[in-house]
Amino acid sequence: MKNNSRLCQNLKHVLSALILIFYASSAESQIVNVWAVGDGEKIFRNDTDHPAEQKNSIWDGNKIHLRGLYNEVLGFQIIVEVDSSGARGLEISMDPAVHKKSGLVAGGSGEVKYGDQGYIEFFSQHYLQVKNPTEPNWFYGSENSAPARMTGWIPDALIPSDALFGKGGFPLTVPPTKQEVYRHQNIVDVIPRAASQNQGFWIDLYLPRDRKYPAGQYESLIHVWEKGEIIKKIPVAIEIIDAYLPDENHSNVWVYSSGPEELGVYFPGLNPDEIRKIFKFEARRHRIELVGGFDAHQSAFDEGIMRDYKPFLDGSAYTPANGYHGPGEGFGEKLFPVGMYGGRVLGNTKEKMQEESDKWVTWFEKNAPEVNYFKYLIDEPGPAQYDFINEEAKWIKSNPGPGKRMKLQVTTGYVEDLRDAIDIWDAYNGVELDRLEELRKTGKDYWFYNGNRPRYGSVILEGTAVDLRVNGWIKYLYGIDTWFVWQSTHWTHNSQGPKGRLRQRIFNEPLTFINEHLEWGNGDGILFYPGMMPHQPEESRGINRFMPSIRLKNIRRGQQDYELLWLAGKEAGAERIKSLAREVVVKAMDEVDMKDKVYWPQHGDAYDDMRDRLLDILKD
Q1: First-to-last C-alpha distance (Å) of the chain
Q2: Which CATH code fits 252-486+525-604?
Q3: Domain ranges in the chain?
Q4: Which of 197, 241, 331, 558 could link 469 by a cystine bridge, Cβ 3.0 to 4.6 Å?
Q5: Within 13 Å of residue 579, how many CA atoms lie on the same side as its CB?
Q6: Which residues fall within 8 angstroms of residue 443, CB to CB, at 6 or more apart?
Q7: What is the strand order of the sheet 152-160 is part of?
Q8: How far apart are CA 256 and CA 533, in angstroms?
Q9: What is the pTM of this model?
Q10: DSSP labels for 240-277?
């Protein structure tokens, strides 16, 4: 199979070379402008007069300026504006970074080369056309807190450079522009054919883990290619601060995914263990806890299943010896839900629940004592379920054996009727901050999940890029441990809605969630995209792995920002750093009414400016 894969790659490179030869003989350049922007923006396809084009936090109009720590991933974008006739043979590359004083080279040479020297990874941005924007519901409270722009061609999926030609792989063809029609609140908006359009590229630059690569100034060049010719060279200045971004996350983003068995059809030739491994690795590089969809979380206690899962808990799965390189090397997962979404894995009687909870608690206390494990008791309960919750909680907590120490979690805000039953509250409308302190005194906790503007960032496609970043700042500012995202591979429609169990056309249709009440959200439940689409083969990208999204990259950015805040707090005092964070996030959580505006910046520059101040603290 490996030989066939190598042959396919060789054929792909030959085909690309022939295409470039053809392009080189065709018409003159269609490139209007090339510029750069950080990871905190979504540049729409038709937004060819963006205010960040002239200058932004990483771009002075001519040169890219990046700063970061050892073990940090710096994501940024190259925006190529193409005239109305489109373009062919479009791609980018980046030279390895060279230390100005020593001449030492860090990073790869264009291919993904994980290791202590860092890496450079390239993606093209795939756009989804939103004509009917998500309406106010649990994604945002009112028009006051809605994102400023919710229709148009929105970038999200990031297609690796080695994907199929014509499906986002390099080189790209950008089609001619055309007239657009949008509808919102019974208003029809006809946009004439644009004079030009954007094609975005995403670059991940992973700074070295190894301090043998000296701190200080590095230089590189980005090359923009059209039809096999370099049409633009952009200088890049990179400063590595002499501090190390921790491998360990000091706050958690807990993300659910469908299990390898359910996803298997999207990964032909891979068995569930292989799928789980590559998926876990991709999640780890983005600093998230990908848990919930695996046998270990969905079944009754099984010694063999837990033995197989243990390497992810003790960190031995995330080591170079096991094929993993990148952030989080050697550290295990911190969260483990038992019976995801209320699965009846403990049984249905008092005796059975006590017997099964004994098994779980005994195993964790012996094998993974640092992991925060808990029984996901029920999903989004209402008053009709309160008696049931109290009864089952009483069965577990009255257990004479070790099972009485099993924590119980529900996805709802605090309910007084369940005060004695629940240990972890996980609310979609935000954490009640006064209640958080009160609960912590009794050994309990309060988390938040999904996204709900203006209290915290939204997960929908129309949300700003920083919607998924700001939650890291909110967690640090208010001392909240965990944010939970309900789904990341929602490639089959939710079963309770009118599209139940239909295979999503996620590269063409923005609507990904709709329930029986016809409440819906664009892009909800999607953080990863599949490289193969067996049900719509014309949409396959030809790569047998997971592909990230701009939303996923901003979750990573928020997690890295949290670690930077944490490091600066150790250096300069947590209260001082929280006061700086408050300059960015003025209000959040229940300090904000759901009908209020958003009290945190909508663009990445404000976060980047404060990030520079935090880096200066560590540099000094």
Answers
A1: 53
A2: 3.20.20
A3: 2-244, 252-486+525-604, 490-522
A4: 558
A5: 4
A6: 423
A7: 31-38, 73-83, 196-206, 119-130, 152-160
A8: 21
A9: 0.93
A10: EEEEE--SS-SSEEEE----HHHHGGGSTT--HHHHHH
